[in-house]
Amino acid sequence: MAAGAFRFMASGWIERLYGEPDFFFKFYGFEWVAPLSVSGMYWAYGIVGLSALGIMLGLFYRWSALVFWLSFTYTELIDVTNYLNHYYLVCLLGLLLIFLPAHRRFSLDVWRKPSLRVETVPAWCLYVIMLQVGIVYIFAGFAKLNADWLLRAMPLAVWLPPKADWPVLGHLFTQSWAAYAFSWSGALYDLSIPFLLLNRRTRPLAYVAVIAFHLLTRLLFNIGLFPFIMIFNTLIFFPASAHERWLRKLGYGSGATGKKLVFPKAQVSLLRAGLLGYFALQLLLPLRFLCYPGNVLWTEEGYRFAWRVMLVEKAGQATFTVRDPQTGRQSEVDNTDYLTPYQEKQMAIQPDLILQYAHHLAKVYQQDYGIANPEVTVDGFVALNGRSSRRLIAPDVNLAAVEDNLWPKSWILPFEDEEKIAQQ
Amino acid sequence: MQLLKPVFTFVLTASVLLFSGCDSNMGGTQSPCESDFDQQALFQHVVDALILPGYAALELSTQNLQTAASDFAQAPSPETLDEVRTAFQAAYLNWQDAAQYEFGPAEEVALRATLNNFPLNINALESRIVGGAYDFANPNTFDKGFPALDYLLYGLGDRTDGAIVAQFEEAAYAEFLTAQTAFMAESVKRVHDAWKNGYRDQFLVTTGTAAGASLSQIINGLNEHYEMIKRDKLGIPSGVVTLGFTNPDKVEAPYSGLSLALAQRALLAAEQFYLGVGRDGQNGPGLDDYLEAVNATKEGESLNTRIQQQFDVAKAALAAVPAPLRTAVDENNDLAVTAYNEIARQIVNLKTDMPSVLCVAITYIDNPSDSD
Known about the structure:
The structure holds 2 protein chains of 2 kinds.
Chain A (H helix, E strand, L loop, with lengths): L1 H9 L2 H7 L18 H20 L3 H17 L7 H15 L8 H5 L11 H21 L2 H5 L4 H4 L10 H4 L2 H23 L4 H18 L5 H8 L6 H10 L15 H20 L11 H4 L14 E10 L6 E3 L8 H9 L1 H19 L5 E10 L5 E2 L26 H6 L1
Antiparallel strand pairs in A: 1-2, 1-3, 3-4
Helix pairs in contact in A: 1-3, 3-4, 4-5, 5-7, 7-11, 11-12, 12-13, 17-18
Chain B lengths: L3 H22 L13 H36 L3 H21 L6 H4 L2 H6 L5 H10 L13 H10 L6 H7 L3 H35 L8 H22 L23 H17 L11 H7 L3 E2 L2 E2 H17 L5 H7 L1 H13 L1 H12 L14
Antiparallel strand pairs in B: 1-2
């Protein structure tokens, strides 16, 4: 993660993500999170990077973990359009790490204070990470069990052919059966890998599959550090003896104290309650889409925080009109006046962001042009997974008057498949 | 492993069954992103019948403009002014065809920005002329190219021929005009040469749907310029984006009054680019044929038909606006706004539907970071 933070700083993304926009899309319930100045954001990322180093080296571990979690989560809360599932995973793991004694053996803290050293920790410490990783895979796998993924090989059928210039494999990518094969094996992989990793006999082979799968996705897609996070995370499925063997090879293994880490009773029950609540949330959040009508890939209600990874190829456009109800004067909005191109692209396909932006426009027109209660409507179209576009938002709804909440959004138009339309 | 064996067997059988099932069921319908359409034939036609002839015509007309301009600069008179104006109009109209080919060599030299950034900043232009420090290659300034010539050849002083000719008795003006037109001819020649010497051959073989592949260049080029026709040529002047308050001074070519002719030519060029209608009027392989080849439909009808119909509607709406646009945006605002709306209505077809069904990404809007 330290590498990630420094990559962020080096690549100039900080200016692009935090310096260029003058409007930021907020997460529901976190509207109060505001960005710092560009130099402030550099400091924030510096803190993320240093605290990640602290965790890795096991130096002032608890503080490092706490600071890492806070600072990383902060940077991710600033703008919804930067949301990525793997950043969310890092936030969750960061939170869990605060409470785990991951510094009690092979760490600088032990070198500093040898009394910290223990040989074993309670098994649940490992299980929580395994469970979290398992949840990611299983939900990602279930999310793939939809008609587009399985029956149309979408969106892989869009994403693979551009890689046709690859050596050896390249020719495969243009074949339609290859997209199907990748789709199906991807779903199968996600659904089965946690179990294969748990089983002692399948574990070595499963880990080879983990490496192969994630390296392939790394090479095929622009998904940053995620493959490496998963490759290293899944190492936790290996028993301690395997890790010990590697540690010994690295020349670290002597001086065993035989000490076992035992948590005090009070701490254990507190942790138990906390973890129960945490994992209940982890199981329910991805399922919340069931509370909303319509196709979650279309409405995106309950889409985030649900391990829907690489599921859609979406393109959209949203043309907003602001109208003064007193004079009847109206203006079409040039989105580039308020949003970066990337924000505009993300906003156009996500209804909750369309609403946020509409509210922002209402505010701007009220302040800058003195229009009382401006009406904001949108002409919004989205094309999903290689189809032609459909209208996403009811065009006559005054979004400025629509309150943002978690109830189903009645102004999202239902998704109708072309085949259905053709049959009518 | 004993426990998992039945699971594996089940999964394997299930997937084999499903796969074989899919094949028989879906034999009739076209898989997305897959077609037998001959991309290379499309590229060859677009390059050899549209792009290269387009640049050839533009190169010739900018050279004529350069010659006429230096004749005028050496001997300013109503007659030489007339000649340079004629050459200017021809070149400006030809430019509308080529403006949408802003990829490869043209993108490298930012041809569109160096030739036609408007509206003109007159003060900046005047200080360039007086100071003699020209910066024609800068894509971010609004003091050069066709808009500068529009002002210098039609808008100086009280805008009479006499006043304009008199102004060019000043060496600074004559020098600027000569240098500017020479730069324009030189830039166009450079782009045209780059196409002829290498880029054409490379373009013809860069098939596929990836960003940067020729199909993506064509679709992105078409869309990016189409949006400029909408916003810059019509939207901003007619007040659509400014609460109905018009901006007549921000039309393209306000002094020569060419605005509407240029907009019409640009719209026609977009249609021909889409249809694959060559400069000689021959209709060859175009994006329309590609859409038909993948059976692209929208709301139950052919996407290609919808696009063609919308081009006709948009052209008719634009033709209904009386020239010059500079006065029409106030006196016939409804007509200008209607033309804008009809041009805008095409964008969803060209920018969202067409790339989606052809599996091409719109790339002039890029991703700043990772995706997942």
